[in-house]
Amino acid sequence: MSNHFIKEEKIRFQHVDYAGIVFYPRFLEMLNALVEDWFEEALERPFATIHETNGIPTVDLKVQFKKAARLGEILTKHLWVTNLGSASMVCGFRFEDEQGKTCLEGEVTLVNVAISKNRESIKSEPFSEDMKQKITPFLSENRL
Predict the structure, then answer these.
(1) Cα pseudo-dihedral 101, 103, 107, 113, rounded to 10
(2) Rg (CA), the chain
């Protein structure tokens, strides 16, 4: 798993529903936070600056909810790349509880896009060679 980007997240009251388990859209917010942290911490491309001229929208998302996560638990979130194209990449992800049991897993397809100055047009744009070199260490054969 050395080629995984890994972060921990504590399940807070803001994440849960009346039953005390993570409300499913909050898992997707946690996934987006994981992608954002990966871009900032590992790829040196923080969203605070990337969105001035570019974007990295999600164009496909496959999610399987495997086990409830509860208030107070710590999740370990894993992200890796299964396919790197010229302007897109497919990332696998898995969220595990403190016993290593999978709560959530899936794949997300991200596309590198250029945004026009007037913000009226968006089109895919190939990753730079520098960005491909930063992404490559996270490539893994590990598919769900």
Answers:
(1) -120
(2) 16
Digit-coded pLDDT (tens) for 41-67 = 999 999 999 888 889 999 999 999 999
CA–CA separation, 119 vs 72, rounded Å?
41
Distance from C-alpha of 123 to C-alpha of 68, rounded to nearest angstrom: 38
The set of residues, in sequence order, having a beta carbon less than 8 Å from that of 49 and lying 6+ positions away, is none
48-54 long-range CB contacts below 8 Å, 24 or more apart? 51/115, 53/114, 53/115, 54/112, 54/113, 54/114, 54/115, 54/125
Tokens of 110: 């991200």
What is residue 65's three-state secondary structure?
Answer: strand
